[in-house]
Amino acid sequence: ARRCTIDGAMIEDNKYALSVHYRNVRPDQVESVRAAVSAHLETQPALCLKHGKKVFELRPRVEWNKGSAVLWILQALGLNQCKDDIFPLYLGDDITDEDAFIALRQEHPENGAAILVRESGDEERKAETNAEYVLRNPDEVLVFLERLVEVQNEHNA
Fold first, then answer.
1. What pTM, to 2 d.p., does this model score?
2. I need a labelling partner for 41 at 20 to 30 A (CA). Which of 55, 72, 143, 154 fits?
3. Can you list the residues of the chain whose pLDDT is less than 70?
């Protein structure tokens, strides 16, 4: 990540997108970050703006998102045809994860789970979601995953 000219802002090159993080920017400077991103976007018509948790993402204007990625991974692994044999899980804490929640629920409505990780009172991440389940924080995610391993081990015993 590179520092930006606005204190606290960081630019991250994600290979196929640029993320401008403003988590550490003073609240009175956030609009300056937004204006700088918008000005750059006007010079790059092939890019579009997506919002995340304290981040502006500049992405190519293509129909590709986390939902597309989940479905592509399932297909690439040959798992998209095995709907009775697999149980895909998707856990996410960002608004950009909603596309994956939707895709998973549409393609695996009976045997998959979309899980939002959201602490109560999180003002950055609204409670409305397409996820079926909610875990309150990373500690609950750890407990959940440990329990999955226990269940699998019991099943294999």
1. 0.70
2. 72
3. 1-3, 82-83
